[in-house]
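quick one
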Amino acid sequence: MRDRFGREINYLRISVTRRCNFHCAYCGAAKSDARELTPEQFAAFAAAFARAGITKIRLTGGEPLIRDDIAEIAEAVRAAALPETLAITTNGFLLKEKAPALKQAGVDAVNISLDTLDPECFRRMTGRDALAAVLEGLETALAQGFKRVKVNAVLLRGVNDGDAERLAALARDYPLDVRFIELMPTGDGDDYQKRLIPSGELLARFPHLSPVPGEDGAAEYYAVEGYRGRIGLISPVSKKFCNDCSRIRLLADGQLKPCLGQKETYDLLPYLNEPDRLYEAICQCIRNKPAGHHFEKAQGLAPMNQIGG
Ligand code: SAM
Ligand code: SF4
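structure w/ iron/sulfur cluster:
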């Protein structure tokens, strides 16, 4: 359905947990014992969202694979909502173990967050000595034959920005897209302005990129001769794409968050057993989705691991 600005809202991101097994400084705290919905509850929500026009669903977190029942969640959500695409975003640490069950459960696409290929830098950025495990997860995901595998990287000036070329080369060596996401002002952002690398600056470092069409509004894609996948730039700060936004977010405890840059959430849990009221509540939240974020003056946004990136 359309919101009051005429935007078609058809993409739901479900954060299945706030918990995480990494501790990326730009994302936020890694511990939380907040309420988490069951697979059946996520499925009931997903069905109502599908009725309101959602056709694409992404499971995210926190770290979604930390949940023992993640394949069950995926299967239940797929069966209830019958989305055209069911995707998942993960840090990849548990992917080697869980990729086969996710494929079996009907997950179509996997995004793996990977900010550096240097083991020591990886340990500093995530708090875990886990680069090798993530790379094994990536290879397992590719071997499973998901429709699409992508790598997402956030570059921080003075931390991992020297790794951009090496990360981009993953799209040469593997059949996957590598996308660079601008740092957003969430989490611990004390030195935010110092760390942010605008996409334009990054683009200038890659002289051989040719623009190619993308399939979603958020990323601008580029081809490189000899590469198997594409390079993508996602620029929520320097090229705000709120006018084309198609997303809403369901948090792990049943709160609906219509916009990443908005503090307000709406508790949908009281309507869980009343499908018509749930549908109405979702439609009302979609209609009233705010025009966009104001990252340029943002302060006090919730950490990403609560809202699912
Ligand atoms: N744990 C999973 C992962 O890391 O992929 C899923 C959740 S994580 C919050 C989703 C995405 O949000 C990751 O790609 C992460 O890099 C990104 N993210 C977290 N904090 C961010 C920030 N401040 N700016 C830009 N991206 C951020
Ligand atoms: Fe965890 Fe993902 Fe946030 Fe890193 S970006 S702390 S892996 S939720």
